[in-house]
Design brief:
This protein is α/β, with parallel strands linked by helices. It has helices at 5-10, 32-45, 55-64, 81-89, 108-114, 127-137, 159-172, 179-196, 199-214, 219-234; strands at residues 24-28, 48-52, 69-73, 75-76, 79-80, 97-102, 118-121. Helix 7 packs antiparallel against helix 8 (179-196) and helix 7 (159-172) runs antiparallel to helix 10. The protein is globular, with a radius of gyration of 18 Å. The model is unreliable at 1-11 (pLDDT under 50). Residues 24-137 form the Response regulatory domain.
C-alpha cells in the first residue's frame, strides 16, 4: 500500500481505511527505527503523530498537548516508561488510550499493573494488528469506525533510521561508557536488533545484558557489539 499524502490531507473524517483520522498520537520512543515504523502506521491510519525520545521530552509535550493515544516504550534513556505510564494512568483528565511497547514480552504484566490499557510487543509491523489494538483500548465515545487494513500488511521502516540508531550506539560505546550506559546500550540495542530481525546483533546485546546482570566482565560482548555495529555502518545496507 503506497502512502498517498494528498489523500491523507483530503480525508477529514474516519474511514475504514483511515480509522484514526482526526486523532493525535504521542509516541515516546528513543529508537528512530522503531519510531519510523510508528510514523508509517499513523500516516496510513490517518492519525497525527508527535514524538518524544525520552521521559523529559514526553512530559514537556504533555504540558502543552493532550493526545488521544499515548504509546510509551518501557526502556528510555532517562528512566523507565513505567513511571510515565503510572503518572498518566491516574492523571485527571486521563488520556483516552495508554499503551506500553517493548521487545520484552515478559514486561506486559508490569505495564498493565502500572496502568497501561494494552501492550504492543515489538517489532510492530502489521498495520491491521496495530489498528486493532488501538481500537480495542479506545473508549467507546472516542472510538472511530472499524479498521479494514489488509491482514499481513507489513510496515517496513526506512533503513536510514536504523543506521541512525546504530550510529547512536557507536557514540555511546566510547571510552566513557560506564555501567549505567552499558545497561542502556544492552536494552536499546536488543530492541532495535529485534525490530530489524538481526539475530547476531540481538544475541550480542543479550549477552551484554546477561553479563551486566551477573556482574561479569563485559569485554567479550562489547567487542562483538563494536564489530557488528561497525560492519553494519560500513555496509550499503545495515541489515
Amino acid at each position: 500500500m503506497a502512502d498517498d499524502l494528498t489523500d491523507f490531507i483530503a480525508t477529514r473524517h474516519p474511514t475504514p481505511a483511515r480509522p484514526f483520522q482526526g486523532l493525535t498520537f504521542l509516541v515516546v520512543e528513543d529508537s528512530r527505527f522503531a519510531c519510523e515504523a510508528m510514523r508509517l502506521m499513523c500516516l496510513r491510519s490517518g492519525a497525527r503523530l508527535r514524538r518524544a525520545d525520552c521521559l523529559r521530552s514526553a512530559r514537556r509535550h504533555l504540558r502543552t498537548y493532550r493526545p488521544t493515544v499515548v504509546m510509551i516504550d518501557l526502556g528510555l534513556p532517562d528512566g523507565s516508561g513505567l513511571d510515565l505510564i503510572r503518572d498518566l494512568a491516574y492523571h485527571v483528565p486521563r488520556v483516552p488510550a495508554l499503551l506500553a511497547m517493548s521487545g520484552d514480552t515478559t514486561a506486559e504484566g508490569a505495564a498493565l499493573e502500572a496502568g497501561a490499557d494494552g501492550f504492543l510487543a515489538k517489532p510492530i509491523e502489521s498495520l491491521l494488528a496495530f489498528q486493532s489494538m488501538v481500537l480495542g483500548v479506545l473508549p467507546s465515545e472516542t472510538r472511530p469506525v472499524l479498521a479494514c487494513g489488509a491482514d499481513g500488511d507489513r510496515i517496513t521502516p526506512d533503513p536510514l533510521a536504523l543506521r541512525d540508531d546504530l550510529a547512536h550506539i557507536a557514540d555511546l560505546l566510547g571510552p566513557e561508557a560506564d555501567g549505567a550506559r552499558l545497561d542502556y546500550v544492552a536494552q536499546f540495542l536488543s530492541g532495535i536488533a529485534l525490530s530489524a530481525h538481526d539475530a547476531p546483533l540481538q544475541a550480542a546485546a543479550e549477552a551484554l545484558a546477561r553479563d551486566r546482570l551477573a556482574g561479569r566482565s563485559s569485554r567479550a560482548p562489547l567487542k562483538r557489539i563494536n564489530s557488528l555495529v561497525r560492519d553494519r555502518l560500513a555496509a550499503n545496507t545495515p541489515f
